[in-house]
Amino acid sequence: MVLETFKNLNTEKKKRIFQAMLCEFEKYPLPQAQVARIIGEVKISRGSFYKYFNDINDAYWYVYRIAMEEIHKQTVSKQKKKISYQEMVRNFVERTANSQYFNFIKMHLCVNEPLIKNETRQTFEKQPTDFEEWAVMILSHEVIKQILLEPADKEKLLNYLDLAVKKIEKEV
Fold it and tell me: Is the pTM here over 0.90, yes or no?
């Protein structure tokens, strides 16, 4: 959890710290991320860092939350009507690809997520209400990961997702 002292910093300093953390977390898997590199980049003391965040994991989840909010905010603000999971995946992939968070999200999904599966990340995600929704959410998540790994296969993977969702909906 981000601490009050960080929230009270001036906007410019918060941005510099955030950018240093984003840079660290997009280059290094979470177990290899270091507070030393972050504070060296921003030129703050280790003690200051720990006045802003409890630990490196805390800083990671702060960056993750901001990234997800910004990417989803762009998607939701453009959509006034309810949209399909397929369209949400397409929008998410496009927004991610065109954002400063592309490398961070890719690192998260492809490297960090399996390492931190049982962490508090679930508090940021919508929980499924039934089998169909669960299956589509899992499939959508995997398609996003595959597209980030192989962007050239984007349309093929989105078509597979569309066909799979139609089949799931038909079966249920």
Answer: no
pLDDT tens per residue across span 42-76:
999 999 999 999 999 999 999 999 999 999 885 55
Condensed to tens digits (0 to 9), the pLDDT of residues 133-148 reads: 888 888 998 999 999 9
Tokens matching residue 16: 């510099």
Residue 53, φ and ψ in degrees, nearest 5: -140, 150
CA dihedral 134, 137, 142, 147 (to 10 degrees): 160
> Which residues are CB-contacts of 79 (< 8 A; sequence separation ≥ 6)?
91
- Indicate the domain borders of the chain: 4-171
CATH for 4-171, options being 3.20.20.140, 3.10.410.10, 1.10.357.10, 2.40.10.120: 1.10.357.10
- Amino acid identity, position 149: L
Of 170, 168, 143, nearest to 157 by C-alpha is 143
- Facing residues of 53 across strands? 2
How many angstroms separate the CA atoms of 98 and 14, rounded?
23
Q: In 3D, which of 18, 100, 25, 23 has the Cα closest to residue 53? A: 18
> Which structure tokens are listed for 132?
């169909």
